[in-house]
């Protein structure tokens, strides 16, 4: 069933869990996400990231995501991840997305506030909910970034006091915070500051905190993040990596001179993603 971001976060808050938010840049990943959620009977968020527009346009994947969410046996929010422009936000709202993120984290604070306020007004017309970001995880959502060092000096940790002002001014339903995570592959074990999450929750009156850069974090740190008040966890890189590993294994098993079939390869990738997603969802929901 299709639900809003606000509704799914209320469920997460009530149960003191985090809901997994998984990017679906193609049909195989979308089906893997929904199959995992239905098997575990857990709510889920399926996302289209604007930076994945080059993979499959949202004009193609968006309507499919909405249709499959409506047909699902569990609550599903169809969400825009890292929306970069208000025009793109409007585009997905017109498709029936029930959650949108406007990412103005690289903008001056006042400009971020003004754009997010506009996004909230736009979303209110369709009943959708808005996520915003304050602080910076460094590398962009795709995981791309210069350099190979373990440190990323472009990170800006979220200021809890400023977060309180931001939430009050904008009326967002969720806030993505920077507390030590990084988009993409982790180059070293992350050192997370859960105190930032706790203080953001305190200063904002309990806003659901969103964790970006979730792939690669230890199960123990995920549990600590949820205990601190994280209610949405974005996860893509490692499910994508699991699919790649399954493809590599398939290719390695094909005898020389024998044909390679795309449908077989795609099916194996989908199966691998589903199992990886299920494992992550169990951790986020505190299921042993």
Kindly describe this structure.
β3 (76-83), α4 and β4 form a beta-alpha-beta unit. The chain contains ten helices and eight strands. The protein is of the alpha/beta class. α2 (27-40) packs across α10, α4 (86-95) runs parallel beside α5 and α6 packs across α7 (194-204). The protein has an eight-stranded parallel β-barrel with strand order 1-2-3-4-5-6-7-8, surrounded by ten helices. Residues 141-154 have low confidence and may be disordered.
Shape: globular
**How far apart, in Å, are the first and last alpha carbons?**
26 Å
Number of DSSP-assigned strands: 8
Widest β-sheet, arrangement of strands: 1-2-3-4-5-6-7-8
Give the strand content.
5-15%
Biggest pleated-sheet summary = 8 strands, parallel, barrel
Label the structural class: alpha/beta
Number of discrete helical segments: 10
The run of helices and strands is HEHEHEHEHEHEHEHEHH
- Which percent range fits the helix content? 40-55%
Rg over C-alpha atoms, rounded to the nearest angstrom: 18 Å
How confident is the prediction overall: mean pLDDT? 91
Stretches where pLDDT is under 50 for at least 5 consecutive residues are: 141-154
């Amino acid at each position: 069933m299709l639900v809003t971001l606000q509704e799914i976060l209320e469920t997460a808050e009530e149960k003191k869990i985090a809901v997994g938010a998984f990017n679906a840049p193609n049909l195989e990943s979308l089906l893997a996400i929904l199959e995992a959620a239905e098997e575990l009977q857990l709510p889920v968020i399926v996302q289209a990231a604007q930076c994945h527009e080059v993979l499959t346009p949202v004009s193609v994947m968006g309507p499919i995501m909405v249709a499959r969410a409506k047909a699902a046996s569990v609550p599903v929010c169809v969400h825009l991840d890292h929306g970069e422009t208000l025009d793109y936000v409007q585009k997905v709202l017109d498709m029936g997305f029930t959650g949108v993120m406007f990412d103005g984290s690289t903008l001056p604070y006042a400009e971020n506030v003004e754009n997010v306020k506009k996004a909230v007004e736009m979303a209110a017309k369709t009943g959708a909910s808005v996520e915003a970001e304050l602080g910076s995880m460094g590398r962009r959502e795709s995981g791309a970034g210069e350099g190979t060092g373990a440190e990323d000096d472009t990170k800006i940790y979220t200021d809890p006091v400023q977060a309180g002002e931001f939430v009050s001014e904008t009326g967002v339903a969720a806030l993505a915070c920077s507390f030590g995570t990084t988009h993409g592959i982790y180059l070293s074990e992350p050192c997370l500051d859960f105190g930032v999450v706790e203080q953001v929750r305190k200063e904002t009156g309990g806003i659901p905190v969103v964790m970006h850069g979730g792939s690669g974090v230890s199960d123990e740190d995920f549990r600590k993040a949820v205990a601190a008040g994280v209610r949405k966890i974005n996860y893509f890189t490692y499910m994508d990596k699991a699919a790649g590993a399954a493809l590599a294994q398939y290719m390695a098993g094909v005898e020389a001179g024998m044909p390679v079939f795309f449908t077989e390869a795609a099916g194996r990738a989908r199966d691998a993603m589903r199992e990886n997603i299920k494992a992550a969802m169990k951790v986020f929901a505190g299921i042993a």
